[in-house]
Amino acid sequence: MIRYEAVTKRYGDGPPALDGLTLEVPAGETCVLVGPSGGGKTTALKMVNRLVEPTSGRVLIDGRDVASTDPVILRRGIGYVIQQVGLFPHLDVAANVATVPKLLGWDRDRIEARVDELLDLVGLEPGTYRHRRPEELSGGQRQRVGVARALAADPPILLMDEPFGAVDPVTRARLQDEFLRVQRTLRRTVVLVTHDIDEALRLGDRLAVLATGGRLEQYATPAEVLARPATAFVADFVGAGRTLRRLDLLTVADALVPGRTTGGGPSVAPAATLADAMAALLTSDGPSVPVVDGGSVLGEVTLDSIRAALRESQVDVEVDVEVDT
Amino acid sequence: MREGKRLAVTPLLLCAAAVGVVVWAHKGADVSELGVLATGKLALRVREHLALCAVSTALAVAVAVPAGVAATRPGLRRLAPPLLFVANVGQSVPTIAVLALAFSVTGIGFRTAVIGLWAYSLLPVLRNTVAGLAGVDPAVVEAARGMGMSRAQVLRRVEFPLAWPVVVAGIRTAAVVNVGTAALATFVGAGGLGALITVGLDNQRDRILYTGAALTALLALAVDWAIAALAELGRSRR
């Protein structure tokens, strides 16, 4: 668990880069720090591994102030991924991944086994890639090696600073999928920085929206940020398409009208998103889309039922808020 | 690989050229010329010359590399401009003047010549060390620190290996320039191949003059080769 307590950072006499940030990232969750540049996202991230020290306030990991731990020791227990990756160009892939285990003094067999395991995990065949040099890899492959390197010593915490910012959109989407897959099995406590709201909504269990000047505007789940932006700034940042984005977070099952269906044409599965259902509805001739699960018809989805599901999820969020506070 | 081939062929060519020079020097030489150009005498001059270059370059490396490292540490960056200024002065004052100045302190001999050559070769080593370390991708350094390397580990495992080719280039420049400049060492009585050149000039013996000049040139090429070979060896071993 990571906890920020009234953390402020000022560089020189200027306005704060981060202004009284207080938030808590529960263990095993992904917290995305999102916002325009100048919002102090990276500053906040780097305070966890003490690459940046707060001007006031403190950062706690599992209840312990990071300032009380030697930064070198602290960092060996925290995975760190940056946008430019920063692979060591004079070392091959295996040696790059083995960096932290070597610093920790693991024996050679253990390091080798771990390197292969990690390359498998990030989808790089060890036999092919172990002895490649960074310059021989594509941008996406480099980023995978970067992630493998960060995970090498099995750190409970992972810090990712715009990890998918430097690759093309197709590769980025694939890397995001893989991140979600890996994170579902590993359940690390992740703090991820991005300026891309779509990436934030996709990857985060929680979003911390930071405005210019380092003010925290909202800290909530993606569904809540979309349904109930806390401030005008958040609403503006999330953008006009937020209702459409919400359809991505709800499934057909949420809007299912059980029973028979009058609709023909394209059908959808109950696990599909409401965005898929909406698309099917727009291309079908009738007012409803059949919901089919493995051959049996469960019911249908209509424009009214989708509208109701959106309304209902908004109510759910309100209830959540009350429980939270 | 082509570099490797070049490195293997160069010493053979240099040896052949050196033998050729000696044979030419001895062929038809009169007694007084032979007195200066005997193989044993030539070998002595080459050894003197090499010793001057080796000691002065080694001392320059021993001072300029740590100074370059210091000048690129955060917190000590302010040191870089004054250090480079001092080294620039050492470089731009003519060597003969540095030798004369050193002569007034340490008198005649090897030590004086070494001081002059040392002052002259600080700049290329220092400049390249600073440039090499400053040229390391900051993202790589940040990743290294973020993974829990101490500053010393970042320097030893990441920064220095990456800066190494540039540092070596500086040492190579310094050493090769030193071979040429060491020909002046004869003016402070430190011998070397420069002695042949001055004897040849003073007595209007072209044979002696040309032999000294040719051997100096060959020695510069040999030193250039040796440092390149050492650097190549160091790189392939990593």
Enumerate the spans of chain B where pLDDT stays under 50 for 5 or more consecutive residues: none
* Share of β-strand residues of chain A: 15-25%
Gross morphology of chain B is flat
Number of helices of chain A: 14
What is the end-to-end distance of chain A? 19 Å
Kindly name the structural category of chain A: alpha/beta
Main β-sheet of chain B, in a few words? none
Radius of gyration of chain A: 22 Å
Low-confidence region ranges of chain A = 321-325
* Total beta strand runs of chain B: 0
What's the gyration radius of chain B in Å?
21 Å
- What is the assembly state of the chains in this entry? heterodimer
SSE run of chain B: HHHHHHHHHH
- Provide the residue-averaged pLDDT of chain A: 90
Largest two-chain interface: A-B, 25 and 18 residues
Mean pLDDT figure of chain B? 88
Compute the number of strand runs of chain A.
13
Secondary-structure element sequence of chain A? EEEHEEHEHHHHHEHEHEEHHHEHEEH
**Largest sheet properties of chain A:** 6 strands, mixed
Binned strand content of chain B: under 5%
Helix content of chain B: over 70%
SSE layout and pairings?
The complex is a heterodimer of chains A (325) and B (238).
Chain A: E1 2-10, E2 16-25, E3 30-34, H1 41-48, E4 56-61, E5 64-65, H2 71-76, E6 78-82, H3 93-97, H4 99-103, H5 108-121, H6 126-129, H7 139-151, E7 157-161, H8 169-186, E8 189-194, H9 197-203, E9 206-211, E10 215-220, H10 222-227, H11 232-238, H12 242-249, E11 257-258, H13 274-283, E12 288-293, E13 296-302, H14 303-324
Helix pairs in contact in A: 5-7, 12-13
Chain B: H1 2-26, H2 31-37, H3 39-71, H4 80-92, H5 95-106, H6 110-134, H7 138-146, H8 151-181, H9 194-202, H10 206-237
